[in-house]
Amino acid sequence: MNQVVHIFRKDCRHLWRIIAAVLVLTYLHGYAAVINVGRGMALGFSPAAVLLLLAGLSVPLLPIALFLLVVSVIQEESLVGSDKFWLTRPYSRLSLFLEKLSFILLWAVVPMLLHDVVMIRHFGFSLSSAFGLLVWKSAQFDVLLLFAAALAVLSESFGRALLLGIGAILITLLSLYVVMQNAGDRFVGTETATYALLALLAIAAGGALAVVAFQYRFRITAVAAVLGVAAILLCALLARFWPQSLTNYFDRRNASSVLQSVQVRPDANLKGLPPPRPSQDAAAQSHTVYYPFQADGLSDNVGFDLGLAAQFESPGQKPAPALLGTRVRFQPQAAGSPRFPDDGGSDQLVPFDLFYAGDFERVKNADGTMSGTLILEGFRTAVARVPVPVPGERQEFAIADRKCTVLSFTREHKVALVFDCAELEPGNTARFQVRLLQDNRTIMPSQSHGDSSSAGSWPAFLSPIARTIYQCEFILPEAAEESADASARGREILVFAERSLGREQRDFRIEHFRPAEFGLQAWEQRGVLGAESTGTQSNGGTSPRSQ
Amino acid sequence: MSSVISTVHLSKKFPSSAAVLDLNLEVPAGSIFGYLGPNGAGKTTTIKTIMNIFVPSSGSATVLGLDSRRLSTERLQQIGYVSENQEMPAWMSVDYYLDYSRAFYPNWDAALCDALVKQFDLPRKRQLKQLSRGMRMKAALVSAIAYRPQLLILDEPFSGLDPLVRDELVEGILAISADHNWSVFVSSHDLAEIENLVTHVAYLDRGQLQLSEELASLQGRFREVEVTCEDSPHVPSPWPESWMKPETSSAVVRFVVTDYADDKTPEQVKSMFPACRDLSMQPMSLRSIFINLAKSRR
Questions:
Q1: What mean pLDDT is reported for chain B?
Q2: Between A2, A82, A85, which is nearest B88 by CB?
Q3: What's the half-sphere exposure (Cβ side, CA atoms, 13 Å) at A405?
Q4: Is A89–B91 a contact, with Cβ atoms under 8 angstroms apart?
Q5: Alpha carbon of B205 to those of A2, A349, A462, B108, B293: distances in Å?
Q6: Average pLDDT over residues A132-154
Q7: Contacts of A238 (CB under 8 A, 6+ apart)
Q8: Cα A181-A184-A190 angle, rounded to 5 deg
């Protein structure tokens, strides 16, 4: 223990400049996140401007300083080479390892943890709700420090560690390139990507830990380097041969119980269905066939977007693969209060787009079976009702774990709203949509739509907070008021946000599927389709629920 | 314990070369042991293997009674080590360097340390990187002996030093080892610089041990013989194996005897050269002995 303290004091004495740099940059990084540097910032020459500039620079400089800190402290007693002073002194390897660990914990991990705590508190989140996030983010951060440590124990100087790091990155990129060449789109757009990445990171972290532990125990650099390369290759192999059963397992595990109770079944007898969204591809419309589906068991505020992989089979014909034609969203009927930003219902006409254009002509008169898998991407909506702020003043509100402020700007007949939201990372809200209300009625959606999405921003390297900015604009009817400023006064906005509930799969099978009889017009003639949506929602006057 | 260092069939091989081959060495306790050999002979590799910096390829080394691969911190507290190639923490001042080293050694003698700093005239506040090579070696030596180690290992400690500094260091080592009866293992490629220091010597060439014995014994059995004859001398045959190959010039024959004995060798030489009149047998310096040994093995 005495030895640990003694070496620790020596390292602090020698590396105090780097320690100071890390602490200052950590502070500036937090400051940069709080003021959101880089967004509409006017810079003049003033102390405040210099501080802002430094805060901005902290974003790229902090990782460099942390890398320098880790490499420097480990190389104070370098494990490579045979002429190092400490090798012939009565150093205990265990004490040395513990000292390096303590140093990195105290000067890199703890400041970053404090940085996170201060940021979480600054944005108004409670530490108890963010505890899991703090642990998770700390683990991410520690893994990155571990990579730096692995490079440090394999090299004699900072320059060599840097070169080694570049080499490791190149090997990793090359491995990933080879993997992606052969992996197709199996990781694209699925939760699996996150789990695969986690698994890869876990292996890489295990490899880095093995390198560090091996070097401190045995100090045989060549063998330790082989361990590191083996870990990289193992990552590449895992990515290449990622088991589909794991994907299914994670999907099942992630799916909310709310989504698991949902049943989706084809039913040709449904009536009053909303018309499907028109396809973007007019040519595809000609070989798209439809079938009504009903979703049972959807609870309040819960919906799902449908995906499918299917194929049409008929006797004597080659199977014809089919995909979803256009986006289909199932949600409970919005009776009374608006809970969803979009139109929709629990009964929907599902478009099957035969993948090959020629297939439709080939099978259109056949009587066959359409079967496959439905993929339910669940979501839960949250709604907030917020007064339109007076121009120049901020209005604060909370929605779906986001803390938001909104500012309004008016010009002629336009009302522009700028939302600035903070949420805990990893981001979990997807779409963010706004409606303008007057007298408890929605008078219009915003002219500009957007997905102010924080989902997919994982991993956040150095910040526990995801900041998202969303702007929208309403163009008011000219005759309605004298000016937008006056017209906006007293009005409210409805803000919708969605959070993912995971993914579920359902098998389906439709017998006697006759493509020629299942075109859109055919369903219309059967009276399956109801009136066309207007694109706005009615509001029965009850207050929407906020979450 | 009769030996502070002992190696048994010790070999250390690198991918490109074999640095030490089948080394059997005994360093008696209390000796000042000169480990000699030309550059690249394998002296530093031997020392690094003894210090557990390198792992032996085969064989073993024992230091202070313990296998070198299991050198514990307690045992390292009894060993002082100074090397010309050692990378010292250059950013430290002399004072901080000694203070930092002190914490690793429970038996650190602060008074001895102060005395040595004064004796070597070390500037306490100056950083090691600002010191001359000689001063750095002095600082390293102080930090290696201030805890009164049982064994002091010096790897080419005088290499590149000016004679004045070298003499100071030699005197310092001699004084301390005489006072405290330490064992000193010192390697060098320059025989003259340690001749006055050592009590025992070993000679290593191309990784193989050529000889190892007490200096007095070595110097006692080596004589440079010069025989002057009337005419051109005839080199008798057979020539004794323990005598090195003779050189002749006009009426003089010169050679080295490696098994000199007062009561035997002069008579033996006279009998080999009965027609010759003058016989001279001179003791040899360590340097001369090893130069002759090296020549004889080529």
A1: 89
A2: A85
A3: 9
A4: no
A5: 44, 92, 58, 37, 10
A6: 90
A7: A196, A199, A200, A203
A8: 130
Inter-chain touch A14–B48, beta carbons under 8 Å: no
Residue B88 has pLDDT above 60, yes or no: yes
| Radius of gyration, alpha carbons of chain B | 22
Are B90 and B129 in contact, with CB atoms under 8 Å apart?
A: yes
Do A515 and A367 share a structural domain?
A: yes
The continuous run of DSSP H or E covering B6 comes out as strand B3-13
A345 shares its domain with A313: yes
Asked whether residue A183 falls in the same domain as residue A329, the answer is no
Tell whether A238 and A270 lie within a shared domain.
no
A487 or A71: which leads in pLDDT:
A71
Say whether A416 sits in a helix, a strand or coil. Answer: strand
Residue of B54, B73, B143, B153 best to disrupt the A interface, most CBs of A under 10 A: B73
Q: What is the pLDDT of residue A38?
A: 47
A495 and A506 assigned to the same domain? no
Q: Of A254, A281, A300, which marks where a domain is finished?
A: A254
What is the value of pTM for the model shown?
Answer: 0.79
CA–CA gap between residue A30 and residue A116 (Å, rounded):
8
In a domain, A547, yes or no: no
Residues belonging to chain A = 547
pLDDT at A15: 97
Residue A386 lies in a domain: yes
Segments forming the whole domain that contains residue A1: 1-127
CB A452 within 8 A of CB A514: no
- Does the CB of A89 have a partner CB in chain B at under 8 Å? yes
Tell me the chain A residues in contact with residue B76 when contact means C-beta distances shorter than 8 Å.
88-90
The whole-number pLDDT of residue A409 equals 84
Q: Express each pLDDT in A84-129 by its tens digit.
A: 999 999 999 999 999 999 999 999 999 999 999 998 888 888 888 8
Cβ-nearest to A83 among B73, B86, B104: B86
Q: Is residue A46 part of a domain?
A: yes
Q: Report the residue of B95, B100, B108, B141 to disrupt the A interface, i.e. the one with the largest count of A CBs within 10 Å.
A: B100
pLDDT of res. A544 = 32
Out of A74-83, A167-176, A201-210, A374-383, pick the least confident: A167-176
Q: Which residues of A touch B85 (CB under 8 A)?
A: 83
Chain B contact probe: residue of A2, A75, A88 with most B CBs at under 10 A: A88
| pLDDT in the model for residue A207 | 94
Distance of CA B30 to the CA centre of its chain: 14
Q: What is the dihedral of CA B105, B109, B115, B119, to 10 degrees?
A: -40
Query: CB–CB of A87 and B85 under 8 A?
Result: no
Assign residue A431 the CATH number of its domain.
2.60.40
| Cα distances (Å, whole numbers) of residue A542 to A337, A387, A436, A539 | 6, 16, 16, 7
Residue B277 contacts residue B283 (beta carbons within 8 Å)? no
Q: Are residues A419 and A474 in the same domain?
A: yes
Q: Are residues A210 and A295 in the same domain?
A: no
- CA–CA–CA angle A160, A165, A169 (5° rounding): 150
Q: Which residue of A has its CA nearest to B50?
A: A88
Virtual CA dihedral for B108, B112, B113, B119, nearest 10 degrees?
-160
Mark whether A368 and A421 lie in a shared domain.
no
The last residue of a domain, from among A254, A279, A304: A254
Does residue A403 lie in a domain region? yes
Q: Domains in chain A: how many in total?
A: 4
- In order of their start, the domains of chain B are 3-217 (3.40.50.300), 222-296 (3.30.70)
Determine the distance from the C-alpha atom of residue B19 to the mean position of all C-alpha atoms in its chain, rounded to a whole number. 18
Nearest to B100 among A10, A81, A87 (CB): A10
Residue of B nearest to A156 (CA): B87
Q: Reply yes or no: is the peptide bond before residue A426 cis, omega within 30 of 0.
A: yes
